[in-house]
Design goal:
The protein is of the alpha+beta class. It folds into 2 domains: about 110 residues, Aminotransferase class 4, branched-chain amino acid transferase, N-terminal domain (D-amino Acid Aminotransferase, Chain A, domain 1); about 160 residues, Alpha-Beta Barrel (D-amino Acid Aminotransferase, Chain A, domain 2), CATH 3.20.10. About 25% of the residues lie in helices and about 25% in strands. The strands form 2 sheets. Strands 7, 8, 9, 10, 11, 12, 13, 14 and 15 form a 9-stranded mixed beta sheet that branches. It has a 6-stranded antiparallel beta sheet with strand order 2-1-6-5-3-4. It is globular and about 55 Å long. The model has no long low-confidence stretch (mean pLDDT about 95).
Length: about 290
């Protein structure tokens, strides 16, 4: 499958106050965020003209920047307006929205005192994050051989681009081994998440999910917890050991891009795309497609 390069597309991208033609939305090579990972971002989906949990994403974008000591000149209302303008400029009602804030090229080196924050927002059509054929069979995960970054609990809640380097390596290794994605453990050897999505596991009708203090507590993750409570499905947040994985009947991942994605296999352990996964997936799809604002 040939993918159109992301720098050679039609459309518009908002960057630092201007709605630029897609191919003109560029930054300089000597940009601090590029060299030192001082960039934060949000990935969001629009359904029927509405960005799901948009305000929560905008708030987290600003919080992520502040956590890595970066000031933001835009407030939540500003970001909300810009996202809507970007969708309109690209004639999108359903699509993926990517907002990012980064330190610019005003200064190089570890010193950040003279850098300024910059912001851009793009949107494009993006279907299923994983192969849609896996909807009924689930994707496969391979346990990677190194842990998530050992971050202070508050920093773990910053969606900082630099924190995803290990995820890209883990995914590449998993794909080379014939798997869809990687399962990552935390610094203590407990189950954390996949390379970019939170994990839920089902046993005897109960949902178990790792405590989100060593990795990002995803907005979709929080939504699934709310839906489980609404549907009277018992949900337990706790530490999960890798050796427990063969005791679960169903496993699924959650994220704005991944939505709810069933897992059919972790290493050599196989799972079914069962009734709890399907029930929550249906509830989530109903929620995002019937939002009114």
């Amino acid at each position: 499958m040939t993918t159109i390069p992301f720098d050679d597309r039609d459309g518009f991208i908002w960057i630092d106050g201007e709605m630029l033609p897609w191919r003109e939305a560029k930054i300089h090579f000597l940009t601090h965020g590029f060299h030192y990972g001082t960039e934060v971002f949000e990935g969001e989906r629009a359904y029927n003209g509405h960005i799901f949990k948009s305000t929560q994403h905008s708030k987290r974008l600003i919080k992520s920047a502040n956590l890595i000591k970066m000031d933001v000149q835009y407030n939540v209302d500003d970001i909300e307006t810009i996202k809507k303008d970007v969708l309109k400029a690209n004639n999108l009602t359903n699509g993926y929205v990517r907002a990012a804030i980064w330190r610019g090229s005003e200064q190089m080196g570890i010193d950040i005192s003279e850098t300024k924050s910059h912001m851009a927002i793009a949107a494009w059509e993006w279907g299923s994050y994983f192969d849609p054929k896996a909807r009924d069979t689930g994707i496969s995960l391979h346990t990677c051989n190194f842990a998530k970054l050992n971050l202070r609990e508050d920093l773990a809640q910053s969606k900082c681009g630099g924190f995803y380097v290990l995820s890209t390596i883990a995914k590449a290794e998993a794909q080379k081994a014939g798997f869809t994605d990687a399962l990552m453990l935390d610094q203590y050897g407990d189950v954390a998440e996949s390379t970019g999505a939170n994990l839920f596991a089902i046993k005897d009708g109960n949902i178990h999910t790792p405590i989100a203090d060593r990795f990002l507590n995803g907005i979709t993750r929080q939504t699934i917890i709310e839906l489980a409570n609404h549907l009277n499905i018992n949900l337990i947040e706790r530490r999960i050991k890798p050796e427990e994985l063969d005791t679960f009947e169903e496993i699924f991942l959650t994220g704005s891009a991944a939505e709810i994605t069933a897992v059919g296999k972790i290493d050599e352990i196989e799972y079914t795309v069962g009734s709890v996964t399907k029930k929550l997936r249906t509830a989530y799809e109903d929620l995002v497609n019937n939002q009114t604002g």
